[in-house]
Design brief:
Layout: H1 2-19, H2 30-46, H3 50-62, H4 69-86, H5 91-94
Helix pairs in contact: 1-2, 2-3
Length: 121
């Protein structure tokens, strides 16, 4: 399995991250980069290859692809802003970007009372 991951899948993932099928850097959405990054990271961990792990960490922080943190966060922020302007009552926004129902909202007034702490003996 190590040989297949190393000699079949890694070159395909690496090629996509470098060339993006011959398109510009912003052509594919972030999920394409992120899937290939996850595959290379998994191959690096599976084969105990620190160079591959370091390569993906460097790509995540500093590369020019859409999977880089420098490019994906502004894109997500812009998309959320457009959703908020288009439909202010969008259910995804009401649940704090889909992370759960009211994750960042304060609890209702009835739930703000403090419960007594259990006594340790």
């Amino acid at each position: 399995m190590n040989d297949v991951a190393e000699h079949v899948f890694y070159p395909l993932n690496k090629d996509f991250l470098v060339r993006r099928h011959g398109t510009c850097d912003g052509h594919y959405w972030a999920n394409w980069d992120l899937c290939n990054m996850a595959a290379v990271l998994s191959i690096g961990i599976f084969n105990d290859d620190q160079a591959k792990v370091d390569e993906i960490i460097e790509y995540f922080w500093n590369d020019k692809g859409q999977g880089s943190i420098q490019h994906v966060i502004p894109h997500l922020r812009q998309r959320l802003r457009r959703l908020r302007l288009a439909r202010p009552r969008h259910p995804v926004l009401r649940t704090t970007a889909g992370l759960g129902p009211g994750l960042l909202r304060p609890p209702p007034a009835a739930d703000t009372r403090r419960l007594p702490l259990p006594q340790l003996t």
